[in-house]
Write a structure and sequence with these properties.
284 residues; alpha/beta; Rossmann fold; seven-stranded parallel beta sheet; two-stranded parallel ribbon; 11 helices; 9 strands; 40% helix; binds NADP nicotinamide-adenine-dinucleotide phosphate; NmrA-like; Ergot_Alk_Oxidoreductase; NAD(P)-bd_dom_sf
């Protein structure tokens, strides 16, 4: 029997870049969806397509058994993901695994959580074999602070709230298990790390791993916004501030066992993450 073909969107991104090798290990035929023909994902089939270009997406979906749907945050991300799901159904794709976000809810005050909820609802309505993954804050998002962490500090408007942050490699492993396993139809899995950690605890883990003093400073939302104005577009900065307000309210602290349940391995802890990524936090 032929091995199933899985289309991975965002194949060069945070989760996708770990999902491609995870699927290969499981013997799946991977088709990586990429936008730049000059930067193919090595070792697998590549399909050059852009979510803004439906014809290219339809071509990428040809002959695909299952699709992993992920796109970066963007003002039109919900529309792009909804159209992708429609095109996948039209192409006869059997299964969609959707990357959403922890606490996605249509009435959330966080815009990213509202748009993820819109996409979830649409995919559910399509009637395909589908599974939703709702990961919490990515540990790898800390790499966005690497510049100041290398100078001994980082700041965010989160106070002392704990978040059950997850390593993106665990999201990839969970996605690979769902894409290749059975019994996941119609299920929604919230994916978290093994414990909820405060940013002070994250600073401690980074200090231990790098052998340097790294401090976390709570920053008022206004100060955080001022520091990033001009570096991020307004929609993204406003959304990020909403995300942090949600974390600061303690709304992202629950711990779920889904990673271990799906993969058979415990979710990676922040201490291990800090050790493995230490070099990225010490570069000048
Ligand atoms: N960051 C977090 O803590 C967190 C937590 C929970 C959920 N999430 C969710 O995770 C998702 C991914 O976020 P991320 O920031 O980590 O992004 P990401 O997955 O790294 O996204 C970048 C990927 O998307 C591809 N891409 C960009 N624009 C595209 C387009 N128009 N058509 C096709 N592919 C395109 C990029 O390909 P190229 O190589 O061609 O640029 C790259 O592979 C978002 O939905 C976010 O809400 C994030």
């Amino acid at each position: 029997m032929d091995t199933p073909t899985v289309l991975v969107t965002g194949a060069t991104g945070t989760v996708g870049s770990a999902l491609v090798p995870a699927l290969r290990t499981l013997g799946v035929t991977v088709r990586a969806m990429t936008r730049d023909p000059d930067r193919p994902v090595p070792g697998v089939e590549n399909a050059v397509a852009d979510l803004h270009d439906p014809e290219s997406v339809t071509a990428a979906l040809k002959g695909v058994d299952a699709a992993f749907l992920n796109s970066p945050s963007a003002p039109d991300a919900a529309d792009l993901q909804i159209r992708f799901a429609d095109l996948a159904r039209d192409a006869g794709v059997n299964r969609i695994v959707l990357l959403s976000q922890y606490a996605a809810r249509a009435d959330s005050p966080v815009r990213f959580l509202r748009w993820h909820a819109d996409v979830e609802a649409h995919v559910q309505r399509l009637g395909l074999d589908h599974t939703v993954l709702r990961p919490n804050l990515y540990m790898q998002a800390l790499l966005g602070f690497a510049g100041t962490i290398a100078q001994g500090w980082f700041a965010a408007p989160i106070g002392g709230a704990a978040v059950s942050a997850i390593d993106t490699r665990d999201i990839a492993d969970a996605a690979a298990a769902v894409l290749t396993g059975t019994g996941h139809t119609g299920r929604t899995y919230t994916l978290t790390g093994p414990r909820a950690v405060t940013h002070d605890q994250i600073a401690q883990a980074l200090s231990t791993a790098t052998g340097r003093d790294i401090a976390f400073h709570d920053a008022p939302a206004e100060q955080f916004t001022a520091a990033l104005t001009g570096l991020l577009p307004p929609w993204q900065l406003d959304g990020l501030v909403e995300d942090y307000a949600h974390y600061a309210r303690g709304e992202a602290a629950d711990v779920y066992t889904s990673v271990a349940d799906l993969t058979g391995s415990p979710a990676r802890d922040i201490t291990g993450f800090a050790q493995e990524y230490a070099a990225a936090f010490t570069r000048a």
